[in-house]
Design a protein that fits this description.
This protein has a single domain (3-235), classed as Rossmann fold (3-Layer(aba) Sandwich). It is α/β, with parallel strands linked by helices and 240 residues long. Helix 1 crosses helix 6 (196-209) and helix 4 (96-124) packs parallel to helix 5 (145-164). The chain has helices at residues 12-22, 35-45, 89-94, 96-124, 145-164, 196-209, 219-229, 232-235; strands spanning 3-7, 27-32, 51-56, 78-81, 127-132, 170-176, 179-180, 193-194, 213-215. The chain is globular, with a radius of gyration of 17 Å. The protein contains eight helices and nine strands.
């Protein structure tokens, strides 16, 4: 494994993933909407990796930002898409533009981008694609169903892409962090909350072992199985 691409590399989770992959590859490619922030991050990593490159990529563009990555040289062995983020549910309910932005950021853009990245991987016959999804996509809940519906779509896309590419030499992994302790997500229960470094380690585990679906905190698998099992008449009365 020689080269890794991280899309959404300026987020806290993206930075942690980039740092983890820098220990395993010779060339690290960082992509995102803010080249200046990417360049500062690249400068911090240049002592840890042979070469760091910066690429502007906006997943909200009509093509999911794929045109910004056409010039990747070399073609990465691993591509990780960390793009996403939840907006306020009530804002998204009131403002169709906010709802659309949430859906584009968490599903449409990342799906179009990874779909485009998959094609040269298939032509080469090798590579690993990792999408960061969410446990929020496993059942719609009143507290975040717009964000959750987008993540559900992204999870289904990754599953379908994994199925399509199963015999191509290209592996597709889905990583579900659950709650992560970042500046935008304070005060969550410690036993269900991961650190950005934990997500980075889960990504590397998915790449190294070619895992299909990885829950960063294994407890989430049981929690969400219980949530999915709640009968709909009872579920509608719960404030989740």
């Amino acid at each position: 494994m020689h080269t890794a691409l991280v899309v959404g590399a300026t987020s806290e989770i993206g930075r942690a993933i980039a740092r983890r992959l820098a220990r395993e590859v010779a060339i690290l490619q960082l992509a995102g909407r803010d080249p200046e922030r990417l360049e500062r991050q690249a400068e911090d990593l240049r002592g840890d990796v042979e070469r760091v490159c910066v690429h502007r990529c906006d997943v909200l563009a009509p093509d999911g930002g794929a045109s910004g990555l056409e010039a990747l040289d070399p073609l990465p062995d691993v591509a990780v898409c960390v793009v996403g983020g939840a907006r306020d549910q009530r804002e998204a309910e009131r403002d169709p533009r906010a709802a659309e932005d949430t859906m584009r950021t968490n599903y449409l853009g990342p799906a179009m981008l990874l779909g485009a990245i998959a094609e040269p991987f298939v032509a080469r016959g090798s590579g690993v694609i990792v999408g960061i999804s969410s446990v929020s996509g496993e059942r719609g809940r009143r507290s975040n169903y717009i964000y959750g519906s987008a993540k559900a779509g992204f999870t289904a896309f990754l599953s379908g892409l994994r199925h399509r590419l199963a015999d191509s030499g290209v592996h597709v992994a889905t990583v579900k962090p659950g709650w992560v302790r970042t500046g935008t997500n304070p005060g969550t229960p410690p036993w269900l909350t991961a650190e950005p470094a934990d997500v980075a380690e889960a990504v590397w585990r998915a790449v190294r072992a070619r895992r299909n679906v990885v829950y960063v905190r294994g407890r989430w698998r049981l929690v969400m199985a219980a949530v999915r099992a709640i009968p709909e008449p009872l579920f509608k009365r719960l404030r989740l």
